[in-house]
Design brief:
This protein is of the alpha+beta class. It has one domain (about 40-210). About 40% of the residues lie in helices and about 20% in strands. The protein has a six-stranded antiparallel sheet with strand order 1-2-6-5-4-3. The longest helix is centred in the first third of the chain and has 22 residues, at about 1-25.
């Protein structure tokens, strides 16, 4: 009787332990990389006009604080030596928000609107606005330091929006060519996406990180 009871308890704990491990395997991230962006993540009580007024009121803050204070947080991208934060909104379109941010906090460079995306450059900060692939009415707002962009982004992506001369001036002589050579054999970051993934040797693989590889003569403008 005692032996049967002991064996029963043993199997109970084995099953319980297996169930716990399946929920979070040892060493596995808690973050579900296949998780989709939900509309509920971006819903806020403030109206569009409330957000516009608040941005103007906080105009003295730096661009990263302006965005983090007024838009829902979505994700963090961990790259080489730096991180980028991603926010989202259901109230604005890309060009509309780019113009508003540039009005409230003038950028040093504003790209053209291409492929559903637009980029604003501030001192030490990049703001990349893009249409969401999953939620047609939503846009994503990535705020990345200059160091993050320099060390992680693909030049193929950036030269769609800025000239090679401008990027080399910002990141250092011959950065575009050197970075293209690196990206031919390595995955390089191409902006936040909810449908792709990316991981370099020093990064955490997260939901929705778009990768670009390769490059060659004539890339960019």
């Amino acid at each position: 009787m005692y032996k049967k009871l002991t064996m029963g308890l043993f199997f109970f704990f084995v099953i319980l332990l297996a169930g716990c491990q399946s929920g979070n395997s040892f060493g596995a991230p808690l973050f579900d990389e296949s998780e989709s962006l939900l509309e509920s993540e971006l819903e806020v009580r403030e109206s569009k006009q409330d957000i516009i007024d608040q941005l103007h009121t906080e105009g003295d803050a730096d661009i990263a604080a302006l965005i983090s204070n007024n838009f829902p947080f979505v994700d963090t991208v961990t790259g080489e030596e730096a991180v980028a934060n991603v926010y989202g909104t259901l109230q604005f379109e890309v060009e509309e928000l780019a113009a508003l941010l540039d009005e409230v906090k003038p950028a040093t460079e504003v790209s053209d609107f291409k492929d559903g995306q637009q980029i604003l450059i501030y001192q030490d900060q990049f703001v990349i606005l893009k249409e969401s692939e999953e939620l047609p009415e939503a846009i994503l707002i990535e705020v990345a330091s200059e160091q993050f962009v320099k060390n992680n982004y693909s030049p193929n992506f950036l030269t769609t929006y800025f000239t090679i001369r401008m990027l080399d001036s910002l990141f250092g002589y011959n950065w575009v060519n050197n970075r293209q050579n690196y990206c031919r054999n390595n995955d390089c970051y191409g902006g936040y996406s909810t449908t792709n993934s990316y991981q370099n040797d020093n990064s955490s693989k997260k939901r929705g990180i778009n990768s670009f590889r390769g490059g060659g003569p004539g890339t960019g403008k």
